[in-house]
Design goal:
The protein is built from eight helices and ten strands. By secondary structure, the chain is an alpha+beta fold.
Length: 266
């Protein structure tokens, strides 16, 4: 996806992305969402900026779940209206297809770390929000966004995967699970490969539970190096229609659900 700026593991500035769009005589118009948690068809999303679909609404649990099930996610800057996106193509990672480099495989074998699930969700989102982003002075993970995903976490839909080294949180990621689909939101690392360790264990854990896809949202070379690939939005939505209705009841993941050494899923 052509963008003004990209970061390896998450989204960049949404309004900067919008300003990348070529200027035309008539500016494109997107709908303002009603009070009910409904969205326009994703086929109506703009081509420039790629995927911009609607504005407004709120970050309530029902609206967020309705959005993710339809391949839509919120992304906006502090002090601005909520913007909703569904880009085409979509970057996805089948959990059994994670590419592990030799150096990462060695780190995973050494296991001089501990991986936990859902024990430090607020700390993970906070660390992701504080992670420096090249060319940006702020973060899209605002206090409002953190509060919204904390509520999703309390309802058993949002999860954190945490890498602990010497008793300290060294890296991790968080995202949303619906049925057998996982929607990655952001990741951070304070030690070498700490976020990749979390991702490798997430892939092993959810593959064993029958998950079929990790939504990586935006296309980057870093994600491609890990095995993610772009697919069309139509294909992505078709996969969600199958995966999101599969039985995987919401609830907190067991803290020791990834106990033991990393095991390849392929």
């Amino acid at each position: 996806m052509a963008r003004c700026a990209t970061v390896p593991t998450s989204r960049s500035d949404p309004h900067r992305a919008a300003r990348c769009a070529p200027r035309t005589r008539a500016a494109p118009v997107i709908p303002w969402l009603p009070a009910a948690p409904v969205f326009p068809p994703v086929e109506r999303a703009l081509a420039e900026p790629n995927g911009l679909l609607a504005a407004g609404g709120d970050l309530s649990v029902p609206r967020l779940l309705a959005a993710y099930r339809r391949g839509i996610f919120p992304w906006y800057s502090a002090g601005e209206p909520i913007l909703w996106w569904s880009p085409d193509p979509r970057m996805v990672l089948p959990p059994a297809e994670l590419k592990v480099s030799r150096s990462l495989a060695k780190t995973l074998r050494n296991a001089s770390y501990e991986v936990r699930l859902d024990t430090a969700f607020a700390e993970v989102t906070g660390a992701c929000a504080r992670r420096p982003r090249p060319g940006q002075s702020g973060t899209w993970i605002t206090a409002e966004m953190r509060a919204a995903y904390a509520e999703l976490h309390r309802h058993g839909h949002a999860h954190s995967v945490e890498t602990w080294i010497d008793g300290h949180l060294a890296g991790g990621l968080y995202g949303v699970a619906i049925g057998h689909a996982f929607f990655g939101e952001s990741m951070f690392s304070l030690a070498r490969d700490a976020s990749k360790i979390a991702l490798a264990h997430l892939c092993a854990y959810i593959a064993r539970r029958g998950f079929g896809i990790i939504d990586c949202q935006m296309e980057t070379s870093h994600l491609a190096s890990l095995g993610a690939r772009p697919i069309s939005r139509r294909d992505f939505i078709a996969r969600l229609d199958l995966l999101c209705v599969q039985d995987d009841a919401p609830g907190r993941w067991p803290a020791d659900g990834i106990a033991g050494h990393y095991r390849r899923t392929a």
